[in-house]
Amino acid sequence: MECLRTGVYRSDIPVKFRLEKTGYQNLIDQVEQIMDFALKIEMNVDKALVTNYDEVKQQIVGKLEFIRDKCPVYEQEPLIYHVDVAAMYPNIILSNRLQPVAIVNEQICAGCIFNKEENNCKRNLQWQWKGEYFPLTRKEYEYVKT
Length: 146
Prior knowledge:
Largest sheet: 2 strands, antiparallel
Number of helices: 6
Order of helices and strands: EHHHEHHH
Structural class: mainly alpha
Strand order of the largest sheet: 1-2
Distance between the termini: 55 Å
Number of strands: 2
Shape: elongated
Radius of gyration: 22 Å
Strand content: 5-15%
């Protein structure tokens, strides 16, 4: 996906996405590992108990191959939101739980009982420190202390 504009993409406004074929090929190559992770960690189900594992895998691979080969440019009303966090006030960031510590790691979230689409409890964003550090001088420290 290519994103050249900042702001919020709403789910009621169509947006054109340029799909990367190499990204879809990487997904196709990792389908079995992803399915195994979902069964073991997210659903706590043994792979041996799934009777139609190969059928589901082939369906997923087929859909990914179709998208990779037939849809280089895709127009859709997105189900994603792109948030320009640099323009937000700290209280909005914190009230929406956009701080980096809101998500411990992917494996803990995958096994969480609240990890459902309707809970909307996590928002993965790439974080970069943009703050500046200004230590107090001795005089400023004494002023604050008094």
